[in-house]
Amino acid sequence: MSATSDFYLAQAEKCAAEAAETALTQVRDRNLRAAQAWRTMADKLILTEVTRARQVAAAAAKAQAAADAA
Predict the structure, then answer these.
(1) Containing domain of residue 30, as a range?
(2) For the chain, how many structural domains are there in total?
(3) What is the pLDDT of residues 2-25, one digit of tens each?
(4) What is the pLDDT of residue 36?
(5) Is it the case that residue 26 has pLDDT exceeding 60?
(6) How many C-beta atoms lie closer than 10 Å to residue 56's C-beta?
(7) Within 10 A of 25 (CB to CB), how many other CB atoms are there?
(8) What's the Cα-to-Cα distance from 38 to each of 2, 17, 31, rounded to whole Å?
(9) What is the pLDDT of residue 70?
C-alpha cells in the first residue's frame, strides 16, 4: 500500500487536534512532535511527486520534439 500526502496531512491534523484536546504537557508535546513529523513526510512526498511530474513532462516534451523532427 502506497502512502499519499493526503494521508500524511490527515495524520498531522489528527495529532494536532489531539494535542489541542489534552491537558497533559507531555502528551501535548508528543502529539505536536508527531504532527510535525507527519507534515515533514507530506512535504517530502509532495516534493517528490512534483519533481517526478516535471521529469515526466520533460521526457514527453523531448519525445514529442524528436517525433516532430523525424
Answers:
(1) 5-69
(2) 1
(3) 689 999 999 999 999 999 999 999
(4) 98
(5) yes
(6) 10
(7) 8
(8) 15, 13, 10
(9) 79
